[in-house]
Amino acid sequence: MATKAELTHFFQTDFPQADFLIDSVGEKSATIRKKINQGHLRPGGTVSGPVLMELADAALYVTILSEIGLVAHAVTTNLNINFLRKPSAEKDITAKCTLIKLGKVLAIGEVSIYSGDSPEPVAHAVGTYSIPPVK
To answer: Which is one GO molecular function term here (predicted)?
Structure first.
């Protein structure tokens, strides 16, 4: 298992391009947040779909690593996302992930993405990760 501090350090050193904050990790779950800026927006004043997909994928990765440890080569094999509502261009987005299954070679999780403090999700994703064999 990896702690919030260990995960934060891992992403800062091994994935410096990761521009999200880890809010919490726990029992097969994690919450991460991304500060939205002008570069994340699409015409119409909303957060772009690829940004939401990136956050969903990152939330899955953080959640899985919090359970199995810092395994850099765990990779996404599938990600399905449904865009539900227009996220605000002025508010951070938050992704809350819960693992549905954590096996030896596959992990499956679901992610709800929220805009600001709204209780209604703006997107919902389900993803699968391949976990490399232990050597």
So the answer is: thiolester hydrolase activity
Domains of the chain: 4-130 (3.10.129.10)
Please name the residues in contact with 134: beta carbons below 8 A apart, sequence gap of 6 or more.
none
Q: Under a CB-based contact definition with an 8 Å cutoff, are residues 46 and 93 in contact?
A: no
8 Å CB contact between 20 and 34: yes
For 36, the token pair is: 């939205």
Q: For 8-26, how does the pLDDT look when each residue is reduced to its tens digit (9 = 90+)?
A: 999 999 999 999 999 999 9
**Whole-number Å distance between alpha carbons of 65 and 45:** 33
Rg (CA), the chain: 14
